[in-house]
Amino acid sequence: MGDSVNQVFEGVRMFLARQSKKMTLRELAGITGISYSYLNRIEKHQIKPTQDMIKTITKTLDLSFVSRPDTDKTFREEQFPSLYNFNMYGEYEQARSLYQTLKENESYFINSPVFLQYYLIMATTIVHTRTDYERMDAFQKTCELLIDYMSDFERELTFVNRIVHNILKGRMRAVKEETTTLLQTMKDEHLRARIHYISGMLKANDYRYYNEALTHYDKAKSIFETYMNYDRLNRTETMQQIIYLYQYQFETFEKSLEKTRNYAQTHARVNLFHLTKINEARYMILREKYSECATILDEFYMAEGSYYFYKIYAYFKVGRNMEALEILSSMKHHQNAFISHMESVGLDTIAYLLTHEENETEALKPLRRFCNTAHENYDFLMIQLATELLTGRLIKQRRYKEAHAYAQKFLRVLYTMVR
């Protein structure tokens, strides 16, 4: 078979093929007649198999190790860098499109010398686009099986993917533990910046830790700036803007918003521009400018929970009830994909208010649930919205003592934030 076979025979591919057949090394040894210890060393790249061994192993595992250098070269020099850059710079729609093209050649890549990079970048693409939950699990498990064969960067990127994967699955306890560990061990600075970004997100979800969140964001921005990754730098700044907004630092917020919006327009970063518009809508809600909020959100579309929640709430406040109900109805079957539990509770509450205006007593049940859920999740704007809706209903029913209690609870949150 010649030396060319040896050049493309890699133990890691033998390992993956064996795993796909659910075959142990001892079972493979029994079928091939090659000793367990020898197969173990072949799989770990400690020794090279003879040509006869290669023939026996490939026949047993139904593998072909014929090289396709032109395809390898195209993937390694063109497609893989494109996928990598799309993911690192947040261009997930382009990554998804290229991923679909490569998916057609998946049976080839599993036997290609570059298949490891393929699996790794596919995991990254699927995690970020949230398009295929079953394959997300499968790719993540495959990457973890291949940890021993990866470079330091590939191994660390796999860990980062697992963190994002766990966030999407709602495993927040595991995320907190993993981010803490990775910040102590991470070698690649660019990936370290992403971990700081994620750590900032985790802290920013709780208004009691906004200062710690800002520290993480500042570290992430410093690294992104060093690497001249201005897309990530500005995306991180949009997260900081939320904290500035909730701490009523409106002047700082406006300057930061203008900066990121100008960058997004100049460099045609659509997703980033939409994030700035969402933040602007938050700002309008806090300033009780509901018509302006509705106008801003009418200008673009974004498949994010906050977009839908704020749009429906703004419509509700300006009396565009039928339009709000139409949005609620059309998005109901998508709810689990991109809306948090808290936003879901809020949407259900507003839906109830829109359809049961005449029943004041029954309306208090979803309102209390929304208010309690918002407090449990430490989301300031949701707490403010829920308190506003609930106290308004309570005052209508002349239940002043209860309304005062919820107002006091909100004031304690506000004091904690701005002190």
Short account of what is shown:
Helix content is 79%, strand content 0%. By secondary structure, the chain is mainly α.
Outline the structure in words.
The structure is a single chain. 79% of the residues lie in helices and 0% in strands. The chain is an all-alpha fold. Among the domains are: 3-66, lambda repressor-like DNA-binding domains (434 Repressor (Amino-terminal Domain)), CATH 1.10.260.40; 353-418. The chain is elongated and about 90 Å long. The model is unreliable at 1-7 (pLDDT under 50).
- The helix fraction, in percent, is over 70%
Largest sheet: none
On the 0-100 scale, what is the average pLDDT?
80
User: What separation lies between the terminal Cα atoms?
Assistant: 75 Å
Strand fraction equals under 5%
Q: Per the principal axes of the C-alpha atoms, what is the gross shape? A: elongated
Compute the gyration radius: what is it? 26 Å
Helix and strand pattern: HHHHHHHHHHHHHHHHHHHHHHHHH
Question: What are the SSEs and their pairings?
Answer:
Blueprint: H1 3-8, H2 11-20, H3 25-32, H4 36-43, H5 51-61, H6 69-88, H7 92-103, H8 106-109, H9 115-129, H10 133-145, H11 152-169, H12 172-185, H13 189-204, H14 210-226, H15 230-246, H16 250-266, H17 270-286, H18 290-298, H19 305-318, H20 321-331, H21 335-338, H22 341-355, H23 360-377, H24 380-396, H25 400-418
Helix pairs in contact: 6-7, 6-9, 7-9, 9-10, 9-11, 10-11, 11-12, 11-13, 12-13, 13-14, 14-15, 15-16, 15-17, 16-17, 17-18, 17-19, 18-19, 19-20, 19-22, 22-23, 23-24, 24-25
